[in-house]
TrEMBL record:
<dbReference type="InterPro" id="IPR003593">
    <property type="entry name" value="AAA+_ATPase"/>
</dbReference>
<feature type="domain" description="AAA+ ATPase">
    <location>
        <begin position="40"/>
        <end position="184"/>
    </location>
</feature>
<keyword id="KW-0548">Nucleotidyltransferase</keyword>
<dbReference type="GO" id="GO:0003887">
    <property type="term" value="F:DNA-directed DNA polymerase activity"/>
</dbReference>
<dbReference type="Pfam" id="PF13177">
    <property type="entry name" value="DNA_pol3_delta2"/>
</dbReference>
<feature type="region of interest" description="Disordered">
    <location>
        <begin position="279"/>
        <end position="307"/>
    </location>
</feature>
<protein>
    <submittedName>
        <fullName>DNA polymerase III subunit delta</fullName>
        <ecNumber>2.7.7.7</ecNumber>
    </submittedName>
</protein>
<dbReference type="InterPro" id="IPR050238">
    <property type="entry name" value="DNA_Rep/Repair_Clamp_Loader"/>
</dbReference>
<keyword id="KW-0808">Transferase</keyword>
<dbReference type="GO" id="GO:0006261">
    <property type="term" value="P:DNA-templated DNA replication"/>
</dbReference>
<dbReference type="InterPro" id="IPR027417">
    <property type="entry name" value="P-loop_NTPase"/>
</dbReference>
Length: 403
């Protein structure tokens, strides 16, 4: 089953909004109504925690809008549906930011795209992922097009939340809001078992330990290196009590993150460079070749800059996720300490969290959580990872009464 309705089956609230909107949109395209009414809007902000599937929802929404099946909206079989779902539809521009921020230039370009008429389907659709990365000027640059989009254009922006820290309040006020909640643990278990062949037990642990983040759960259940990294960061909570071992472990951990980023980036970077060089005429023998190459240094250095930013971003994202894992372990310990009856995030590390609950006071555990939060903040403002993590270890040692 690949219909839009089946893709969104686990989040009925989202499915219903999307299908109602697409139904109205279709009536408008067919000239059956003149106004879009309440169900459909030209500008949407789709929010939800990372991994909840907000971009999946945006793409499914786009498919429902472009679908050409006369009966089933978002049929999943027609050319339009297939192309949108494969991220290859001519009338759907899907912007996935590569760097830490979305620049005003990118948004000026988007504005031009938004003004074009659709060519093969009913709508011109712009999806902007991670719209929380819009810089102030970039958000201002699209304010007008979001406020009064061309009649055939739909703009969907995805962000973690509509908190003013995450999304421009001015833009927010001009958009219809659609919230995508986390999927249930059961849904993730079913998905991972079907998709990866994992055992239900492993799938359940991955779903819980990832905080119901589908992408991370999938990664955790299929990638032994990810399992190892998770164990390393969680064991740090134990090594804190053993002299300098925590510092040694953190150094090893940072190295493994560097390797992960390298593995993920090297091939992609090389392929991008090759493509750029080809488009610049490198390797050709024609008269114009040397001339083209003379002017290409700037383009290559731009690409290298983008790639470097992407590596940094990846590294920080991996570190942040690892620190969230560690924070959840201290939270588990705190829950055990106060006797709260809640699902632990790391049930397979219950031995360690109950040990922490016994050894460290409640206020000490809160201070450990604060130390992790502070390290996350430091990393987000470009403090070097080694400095941030070493500082965190020092503070956790203090909080745990280790001198
Ligand atoms: Zn279709």
């Amino acid at each position: 089953m690949n219909t839009v309705a089946s893709r969104l089956a686990d989040i009925p609230a989202v499915r219903d909004v999307v299908l109602a909107a697409a139904t109205t949109a279709r009536a408008k395209v067919r000239g059956e109504v003149t106004e879009l009414g309440n169900a459909m809007a030209h500008a949407w902000i789709i929010t939800g925690p990372p991994g909840s599937g907000r971009s999946v929802a945006a793409v499914a929404f786009a498919a429902a809008l472009q679908c050409s099946d006369p009966v089933e909206l978002g049929c999943g079989r027609c050319r339009n549906c297939l192309d949108v779902l494969a991220d290859a539809h001519t009338d759907v521009l899907h912007i996935v930011p590569k760097g830490l921020s979305i620049s005003i230039d990118e948004m000026r370009e988007m504005r031009k795209e938004a003004a074009k008429l659709p060519t093969v389907a009913g709508w011109r659709i712009i999806i902007i992922e991670d719209a929380d990365r819009l810089t102030g000027p970039a958000a201002d640059a699209i304010l007008k097009v979001v406020e009064e989009p061309p009649a055939h254009t739909v703009i969907m922006m995805c962000a973690p939340s509509i908190d003013p820290d995450d999304f421009s309040p001015t833009l927010r006020s001009r958009c219809r809001h659609l919230y995508v909640p986390y999927p249930s643990v059961e849904h993730i278990v079913d998905l991972l078992v079907a998709e990866t062949g994992a055992t239900p037990e492993d799938a359940r642990l991955a779903a819980v330990a990832s905080g119901r983040h589908i992408g991370r759960a999938r990664h955790l259940v299929t990638d032994p290196a990810a399992q190892k990294r998770r164990a390393t960061i969680l064991n740090l909570a134990e090594l804190i009590f053993h002299r300098d071992e925590a510092f040694k472990a953190s150094t090893a951990f940072l190295k493994s993150v560097d390797k992960q980023v390298k593995d993920l980036s090297d091939e992609q970077d090389a392929a991008e460079l090759e493509k750029l060089e080809r488009s610049l005429g490198k390797g050709g023998r024609g008269k114009g070749t040397q001339k083209a190459m003379d002017g290409s240094a700037g383009a290559i250095s731009d690409l290298e800059k983008t790639q470097k930013t992407r590596r940094n971003r990846r590294k920080r994202d991996f570190l942040d996720l690892a620190l969230v894992d560690l924070a959840c372990l201290y939270r588990d310990a705190l829950m055990l300490s106060v006797g709260a009856d809640v699902q632990l995030t790391h049930p397979d590390f219950e031995g360690l969290s109950s040990d922490l609950a016994e050894r460290v006071s409640e206020s000490g555990l809160v201070a450990c959580l604060d130390a992790v939060t502070q390290a996350r903040e430091h990393i987000s403002v470009n403090v070097t990872p080694t400095t941030a993590i070493d500082g965190m270890i020092g503070r956790i040692r203090l909080a745990c009464g280790v001198s």
